[in-house]
Automatic annotation (TrEMBL):
Main location as per UniProt: Golgi
Domain of life: Eukaryota
GO BP: Golgi organization; intracellular protein transport; retrograde vesicle-mediated transport, Golgi to endoplasmic reticulum
Native source organism of the sequence: Nyssa sinensis
Protein name: Conserved oligomeric Golgi complex subunit 7
Residue stretches spanning the membrane: none
GO CC terms, sorted: Golgi membrane; Golgi transport complex
Pfam short name (any one): COG7
Keyword Protein transport annotated: yes
Family: Belongs to the COG7 family.
Length: 170
């Protein structure tokens, strides 16, 4: 006969119902008293096995407590060390962030000056081109070559339209 221990862990376990069910499950030819003695002996043996297992597991757990305590202390120390390291890194980041912001602002100013200088250079290049074109136009008009003068004026017009939009230099 097998004893099912699963029903003992049920919150609504009823000992009387369990005993009555165990008695009804016996072989009809087995005397009830013999069946109950057998059932009692199996329950007692299982109880002793469970108690021995609990005692063994408790002893093993007690042996693990000092090691677990050491591990907890080590983890606490590691946590403090890590917290201090992170605080140091955060401080360095804040310092770097401040100097980075200043560096970025300076770079932005330098970039603005550079763009303005490039624009001024291009304007000067265009002015030099216009000066050269103007002297060329004077030479062409002086020579009396009208088709070449018309072509030169068309080039000058294209250059002026590109350079001046809405009264402003492009």
């Amino acid at each position: 006969m097998m004893v099912d221990l699963a029903s003992f862990s049920d919150e609504k376990f009823d000992a009387k119902k369990w005993i009555n069910a165990a008695c009804q499950a016996r072989h009809p030819q087995d005397p009830l008293e013999h069946h109950l003695v057998d059932l009692e002996m199996k329950l007692q043996m299982m109880s002793e096995e469970i108690a021995a297992s609990l005692e063994e597991q408790s002893a093993a757990a007690l042996l693990r407590v000092p090691r677990a305590t050491r591990d907890v202390v080590r983890l606490r120390d590691d946590t403090h060390s890590l917290r201090n390291s992170v605080a140091g890194i955060l401080l360095k980041l804040k310092k770097a962030e401040g100097s980075s912001a200043e560096s970025i602002a300076t770079l932005a100013k330098v970039d603005t000056v550079k763009r303005r200088m490039e624009a001024a250079y291009e304007t000067l290049q265009d002015a030099a081109g216009l000066t050269q074109l103007s002297s060329t136009v004077e030479g062409v008009f002086a020579s009396g070559d009208l088709p070449r003068a018309a072509e030169t004026l068309a080039n000058m017009r294209t250059l002026l339209v590109c350079c001046w939009r809405g009264g402003r230099i492009c």
